[in-house]
Structure formats: structure tokens, C-alpha cells
Design goal:
Layout: E1 2-5, E2 14-15, E3 19-20, E4 26-28, H1 36-44, E5 49-53, H2 65-68, H3 71-97, H4 103-115, H5 123-127, H6 137-154, H7 159-171, H8 181-184, H9 192-198, H10 201-211, H11 216-224, H12 245-260, H13 271-281, H14 283-286, H15 288-301, E6 306-309, E7 314-319, E8 329-332, E9 335-338, E10 347-350
Antiparallel strand pairs: 1-5, 2-5, 3-4, 6-7, 6-10, 7-8, 8-9
Helix pairs in contact: 1-13, 3-4, 4-6, 4-7, 6-7, 6-12, 7-11, 10-11, 11-12, 13-15
């Protein structure tokens, strides 16, 4: 048995102990094999690590080859790589040399990436295929900023509010750069003390941003992005009325990106797996005002996308069921398969 951080969990591992949430609610029983869906559920409940029995896990199957070979993706990848390096350099300059924070410049870098995706493919198609970026703090912040930019549009926010949401996404995890990087990058299991150290990053980011005279909302988001509406988050166990609206948005984008981004041991998880876990476990923790439109728009992003079902059939997503966004209708040959009526059938992956 060994304790594995959430970010290193892999489908096929087996829970060595019963798993409880931070507020001592039962989640999984000892002996349960972990799946993408269950790992997503643990993330939504704020679980940081799991004791697992050792079990070999097969390497992930890479999909979405039509995305990765497209000229549109190649252009996106080029611009993303440049802007990610610029973000890294600017954030490191703030940390190492106390250089002033240029929020407008950082926002413009993110907007440059969004402007590069003007074709058929969505920015989510692009982000899900950035396998060479292993969810570093820099790329994760950039991803969350891009998602928040789109999220703000879905919420019909003004241009000024959209730029603020983008900045909040870019800077929400700044405090992680102040945590011992040996812990952040540790390849082995983390101790309880090391996890406690990582949980200091919201306050560290808040204090640094205050020193940089950043907008008060940006500071609050850095402090509150791990708070949850039901009071199960950290560092202050705030409840919904106490949590800033921008922090609620960033919290959703943060978890979504963490679950759908690449890991060294697997490709990105299927978005419909993530949507299902949000539907089953997320409304109490994230609230409905922001979460519901977020999930609706994510699901609609994949309308007409090719996919493979868990029974091996391939098809195209042709209808999003509003009653259960994670259970669309898929056209397989001449058959229309409503997953709403097939609880044992799921979308295994997008193709």
C-alpha cells in the first residue's frame, strides 16, 4: 500500500482504505478499482490523496489524431508554446526579482491564444491535445485563464468583467510558486505535512498579490479558489454567500482543467466523464448559478463530435439531453443511442 496524490491517481489502481471527504462523508469503499469517473469524483470532493494497492496500469490510448494532425492545431500549439513561456518568465520575474505585475500584458497574452482559434475546432479540442504540457503551474494557470475567458462570455459578462475573469484565472495559483518546489515536483507520494504545505498556497498567493497592489478581486480569487459552497473547502471553510463570484468561476474552471488535462501517465480524461461527476457531486460544492451554464456550454461544445462508446461502438454525438448533460444521444450507423436510457453505457472517449 502507498499514498498517492490525487494528480497521480490512475485508472486501475485500487483503494486500499475507505475514502472519506474533508467533511467526513463516505465516498468510496476499500477495494474499489479507480476509474476516470471515480477520480473525478474525488477531485470534486476535494480529496488530496488516496491509499492504493499496487497494480500495474496499461499505458493510455491516444485519441483525437484528426485534431493533432490539423494545420489549425499546429498553429495553436505554436502560439500556445510561445505565450506559456512568456507567462512563465513574467511570473518568475515577480517571484524572483519582485518585478511589478503587468496584468493587462498577461491578459493580452491569453487573448492572443484565443484569437488564434478561429476555425472549426474549439479551444477545448486544442487544450485536450496538448500532451507535451504536463500540467505545470504555468500551463495550468494559462488553461484556466482561457477557460474563464470563454466562461465569462457564456455568462454574458461585459468586456471589462471578461478581462477580469481572465486575469483571475491567470493568477489564481500564483501562490504555488512560493511553495517548496521540491514538494510540488516530488515524483513520490507526499506526506501529510507536505500536503499541509501545499494547502498554504492560497494565502501565499493572496499576500503576494496584495503586495503587488493587484485588484482586490484577483487577490480574493487567489485566496478563495479552493473554497466550496458547502463549507468543505480551504483555507477558511467558507460557504456560498462568503465566496466571491469570480472565485466560484475559477474553482469550476480549475477542477475542469485539472481533470481534462494531460498527465505523464495518461491522456486527458473524457469531458463527459467530468460533466457526469459535476452533475452527481458538484452542485452543492460549486452552486448552480455558474456550474449549470458551464456544463451546458461544455456539453454543447462536443455536439457533432465523433466518439467511442464503452461497448466499443463508434458514432457521432447528435443531441445533448438537458435532463442529464453527460448522457447525450449518439448516432452509431443507423442507430440512435440515447445514453439517458442506457445507464450502463458511457462515452469512453472522443475521437
Amino acid at each position: 500500500m502507498r499514498v498517492v496524490p490525487l494528480s497521480e491517481l490512475m485508472p486501475g489502481m485500487v483503494a486500499a482504505q475507505d475514502i472519506l471527504s474533508n467533511d467526513n462523508r463516505f465516498i468510496l469503499r476499500k477495494g474499489t478499482p479507480l476509474t476516470d469517473l471515480l477520480i473525478n469524483r474525488l477531485a470534486i470532493h476535494g480529496v488530496l490523496s488516496v491509499a492504493v494497492d499496487e497494480r500495474p496500469v496499461p499505458p493510455p490510448e491516444m485519441t483525437n489524431n484528426h485534431v493533432r494532425t490539423s494545420a489549425e492545431f499546429q498553429e495553436f500549439q505554436k502560439i500556445y508554446t510561445i505565450e506559456a513561456q512568456i507567462l512563465k518568465d513574467k511570473l518568475n520575474a515577480i517571484i524572483a526579482r519582485n518585478e511589478p505585475l503587468d496584468v493587462d500584458g498577461l491578459i493580452n497574452n491569453a487573448v492572443n491564444i484565443i484569437a488564434s482559434t478561429k476555425g472549426r475546432m474549439s479551444i477545448f479540442d486544442m487544450l485536450h491535445n496538448m500532451y507535451e504540457f504536463d500540467d505545470s503551474t504555468y500551463s495550468h494557470c494559462l488553461n484556466v485563464a482561457l477557460i474563464c475567458h470563454l466562461f465569462a462570455g457564456w455568462m454574458r459578462m461585459s468586456e471589462e468583467e471578461t478581462r477580469l475573469a481572465t486575469a483571475c484565472g491567470l493568477l489564481h495559483d500564483l501562490g504555488k510558486l512560493l511553495v517548496n518546489q521540491d514538494i510540488i515536483q516530488k515524483p513520490a507520494s507526499l506526506t501529510e505535512e507536505e500536503f499541509d504545505e501545499i494547502k498554504k498556497h492560497p494565502m501565499a498567493g493572496y499576500q503576494l498579490l496584495r503586495e503587488q497592489d493587484a485588484d482586490e478581486i484577483i487577490c480574493k480569487v487567489a485566496l478563495m479558489h479552493h473554497e466550496r459552497c458547502d463549507g468543505s473547502g480551504y483555507p477558511s471553510a467558507l460557504t456560498e454567500p462568503q465566496i466571491d463570484d469570480y472565485a466560484k468561476m475559477v474553482a469550476i474552471a480549475d477542477v475542469y482543467d485539472a481533470m481534462t488535462s494531460n498527465r505523464v501517465y495518461r491522456g486527458p480524461m473524457c469531458p463527459f466523464h467530468v460533466i457526469e461527476n459535476f452533475e452527481e457531486n458538484g452542485y452543492q460544492k460549486y452552486g448552480t448559478y455558474f456550474l449549470l451554464p458551464f456544463l451546458e456550454n461544455i456539453a454543447n461544445t462536443y455536439l457533432t463530435s465523433p466518439c467511442r462508446l464503452s461497448d466499443g461502438r463508434t458514432g457521432t454525438i447528435v443531441f445533448i439531453n438537458k435532463q442529464k448533460l453527460s448522457r447525450p444521444t449518439v448516432k452509431c450507423g443507423d442507430d440512435y443511442v440515447s445514453l439517458l436510457n442506457r445507464p450502463n453505457l458511457t462515452i469512453e472517449c472522443l475521437l
